[in-house]
């Protein structure tokens, strides 16, 4: 199951409540702590809880309870893979940035020179 599909399992309107932890999908529908897809009025089902569980007063062993079921491993979305920055994009962006900097520097100097020229007396 992909991340975009897990978002649909938000525990609302009779849908199951799924969460993601460490690239694994868990069904928390039967947990009374996830009533209507909300946990502690803070966390919503259908989202990645990896960072939150790591900071919580309980550990990940909480996910091994009888009322929480392992659904499967998370599949990566192709869009996420395509968004990875490759070195060619980085190099092209650096070159464009350098040209922009040079252009702005030349423009700034020309503006300064023109403003200086207006103070010179005309003979």
What topology emerges from the helices and strands here?
Elements: H1 3-6, E1 18-21, E2 24-27, E3 38-39, E4 43-44, H2 50-55, E5 69-73, H3 78-82, H4 87-117
Antiparallel strand pairs: 1-2, 2-5, 3-4
Task: Describe, in plain words, how this protein is organized in 3D.
The mean pLDDT is 81. A hairpin with a 3-residue loop joins strand 3 (38-39) and strand 4. With 123 residues, the protein is α+β, with helices and mostly antiparallel strands. The longest helix has 31 residues, at 87-117. The N and C termini lie far apart (81 Å). It is elongated, with a radius of gyration of 27 Å. 14% of the residues are buried. It has a three-stranded antiparallel β-sheet. Strands 3-4 form a two-stranded antiparallel sheet. It is built from four helices and five strands. It has two domains: 3-80, Cytochrome b5-like heme/steroid binding domain (Flavocytochrome B2, Chain A, domain 1); 85-117. It has helices spanning 3-6, 50-55, 78-82, 87-117; strands at 18-21, 24-27, 38-39, 43-44, 69-73.
Short note summarizing the structure:
The protein is α+β, with helices and mostly antiparallel strands.
